[in-house]
Amino acid sequence: MSEQSSVTLTLTLDGEPVTFQEGETLYEVATRYGKTIPTLCYDPRLEAFGSCRMCVVEVEGARTPVASCTTAAAAGSNVSTTSERIEKHRKTLLELVASENPALDVDPLRGYASQELATLVDAYDARTGRFVGAQSGHSKVEDDNPFILRDYDLCISCYRCVRVCAEQEGDYAISIMNRGFQTQITTEFNGLLRDSACTFCGQCVQTCPTGALADKKALRFGEIERLGD
Predict the structure, then answer these.
(1) Does residue 45 sit in helix, strand or coil?
(2) Residue ranges of domains in the chain
(3) What is the distance between the alpha carbons of residues 48 and 54, in angstroms, rounded to a whole number?
(4) Contacts from 6-13 at CB under 8 Å and sequence distance 24+?
(5) How far apart are the C-alpha atoms of 37 and 55, rounded to whole Å?
(6) Average pLDDT of the residues in 76-91
(7) Taking residues 22-49, what's their average pLDDT?
(8) Which helix (H) or strand (E) is 148 found in, with range?
């Protein structure tokens, strides 16, 4: 959230008047008032990115739905966080994302946020299989570091890992290369994590919404526990 003034303003949210302060986004206002708006690329610790388009809302007078996480709240506006049109949009987006991933159900020990995609797909009944096509991302199975699994076949290009590494840790150990279906999360010169600026802090693992990045130690521990049972 950007710096706010002390001025209290008003807009209409799903038919009800609500107050907000200058500088708040529509997403921040809506969640503060208990509205559930789905996201995939959003992490409250990071600058809003607006890439997944799951958080779109309708603003009266706007030609198209807007990303609520990057749209500043405006006094007097009339905002709808859900509608038949918006819900159809969100389901279609999830169907497209799900069609690219070879697996939606992953071990929750992969990371704190690893269930976000699967949870949303189930909530929107988006396991339809009606979109089939090319897949992006290639796992780095040759990266034998003992801490982080890089299963990029599950990557949805939300870039939360890249942004948390840069914005929260200041390491810039990972970045993005190529475009479209060739998009890949990578290190400098597409090398191994141990040869990069990575400090293995695990922040990238904890923000990943699909389990494309995973905690190897947690997975090993979970496997030992299962074998013990």
Answers:
(1) coil
(2) 8-82, 100-228
(3) 13
(4) 9/73, 9/75, 10/75, 10/76, 11/73, 11/74, 11/75, 11/76, 11/77, 11/78, 11/79, 12/77, 12/78, 12/79, 13/79, 13/81
(5) 6
(6) 97
(7) 96
(8) strand 148-150
Q: Which long-range contacts (CB under 8 A, 24 or more apart) does 20-24 make?
A: 20/73, 23/72, 24/72, 24/73
In the chain, the amino acid numbered 90 is R
48-73 as b/e: b if 16+ CB within 10 A: bbbbbbbbbbbbeeeeebbbbbbbeb
Quickly name the fold that domain 100-228 has. Answer: Alpha-Beta Plaits (3.30.70)
The CATH topology of domain 8-82 is Ubiquitin-like (UB roll) (3.10.20)
Q: What is the pLDDT of residues 151-191, one digit of tens each?
A: 999 999 999 999 999 999 999 999 999 988 889 999 988 99
Rounded to two decimals, what is the model's pTM? 0.90
CA 81 to CA 87: how far, in whole Å? 10
Q: Residue 169's CB: how many other CB atoms inside 10 A?
A: 15
Chain segment 106-155, per-residue pLDDT in tens: 999 999 999 999 999 999 999 998 998 777 888 999 999 999 999 999 99
Structure tokens of 131?
């979109």
